[in-house]
TrEMBL record:
SUPFAM superfamilies given in the database record: ClpP/crotonase (SSF52096)
Similarity comment text for this entry: Belongs to the enoyl-CoA hydratase/isomerase family.
UniProt-listed PANTHER family: ENOYL-COA HYDRATASE, IP11341P-RELATED
Protein name: Enoyl-CoA hydratase
InterPro entries reported for this sequence: ClpP/crotonase-like_dom_sf, Enoyl-CoA_hyd/isom_CS, Enoyl-CoA_hydra/iso, Enoyl-CoA_hydra_C
Species lineage: Bacteria, Pseudomonadati, Pseudomonadota, Betaproteobacteria, Burkholderiales
Length: 270
């Protein structure tokens, strides 16, 4: 049996690839377990500064495996719910990963595949990539956080249209909506995503984790709550060795060596 998620290192970037190309990387319960485990491993590795998530074989992810979903009709409602929570735990694992996760999308990101792409911190897409909330076409309603993620970018009216029609949207259109960070020619999404990840990986690890948290909560917090969170994280950052290195490097007119701090933290004290 093929590994559901392939793991490959490119310098300080951990590349995770959904590996079900015969079904356009449709999701299986094995993926729900393998992807969070790979993310956890990357979080623990001091040599990993950022993560890129993509799909094998020219598609990002076609969403749920309809053959498997059809079998759930015979299950009890609690059993069906348990299967959905496996997907949702995977989405949470992407969202909660302390290291930046960048999606590289070629081909289709449909249904839960769209949710996976949107759960990432940044998104690189081919111009002709296809994004769709396709559930309506098979009589289903969205899961995986699709409506939550999209509501941060589009109006309620457009969100409703996308969900009620299942109409595919190109990478080009998604960039105009503010969803896509980098738009590239077909076949270039992974290369660009790795380049972005390498740049991010050269930065300070703990500051990046704090920034991820701030960005995640900014849309839901009141101003006062966000000011409190910013104050907490800034106070922590000011006492961190990352700030000491960054400020010293600025005055010394040299590049800051944040990766060295990550490696030093990983060495057990004697």
């Amino acid at each position: 049996m093929n590994e559901p998620v392939l793991v490959h290192r490119d310098g300080a970037v951990q590349l995770l690839s959904l590996n079900n190309p015969a079904a356009r990387n449709a999701l299986t319960p094995e993926v729900y377990t393998a992807l969070p485990a790979a993310l956890e491993q990357a979080q623990r590795d001091p040599d990993v500064g950022a993560i890129v998530l993509t799909g094998v074989g020219g598609a990002f992810c076609a969403g749920g495996d309809l053959k498997r979903l059809a079998q759930r009709r015979a299950m009890t409602p609690p059993e069906r719910r348990a299967g959905i929570e496996g997907l949702h735990d995977m989405i949470r694992a992407i969202r909660d990963c302390s290291k930046p996760v960048i999606a590289a999308v070629e081909g289709a990101a449909a249904g839960a595949g769209l949710s996976i792409a949107l759960a990432c911190d940044m998104l690189v897409a081919a111009r002709n990539a296809s994004f769709s909330v396709a559930y309506i076409k098979v009589g289903l309603s969205p899961d995986g956080g699709a409506t939550a993620f999209l509501s941060g970018f589009v109006s309620r009216q457009l969100l409703t249209e996308l969900c009620l029609t299942g109409r595919p949207v190109t990478g080009e259109r998604m960039q105009t909506l503010g969803v896509v960070n980098r738009l590239v020619e077909p076949g270039r999404a992974l290369t660009e995503a790795i380049a972005m990840a390498q740049s991010v990986a050269a930065g300070p690890e703990r500051a990046a984790a704090r920034i991820k948290s701030l960005c995640r909560h900014a849309g839901e917090n009141t101003l006062e709550a966000q000011l409190d969170l910013e104050a907490q994280y800034m106070a922590e950052s000011l006492g961190d060795d990352e700030a000491a290195e960054g400020i010293d490097a600025f005055f010394d007119k040299r590049p800051a060596d944040f990766p060295a701090l990550r490696r030093a933290r990983a060495v057990p004290s004697q």
